[in-house]
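Methods — Computational structure assignment.
A single polypeptide chain was analysed. Its primary sequence is given first, followed by the predicted tertiary structure written as structure tokens.
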Amino acid sequence: MALIHSSVKVMTTHSYISANIESILKKAGVSKNYFYHYFKNLAKIILKAD
């Protein structure tokens, strides 16, 4: 999934603290609605990336 891949890239470039949903969405090219359809929050996507 592009969203999980993009979140890993953003968090390795920055950190979990400085990573935000907007930067992940921009990298993945998806909307905020798309993100929240699959994940409740940023922590949930990290759990999926593991």
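Note: The chain has a mean pLDDT of 85.
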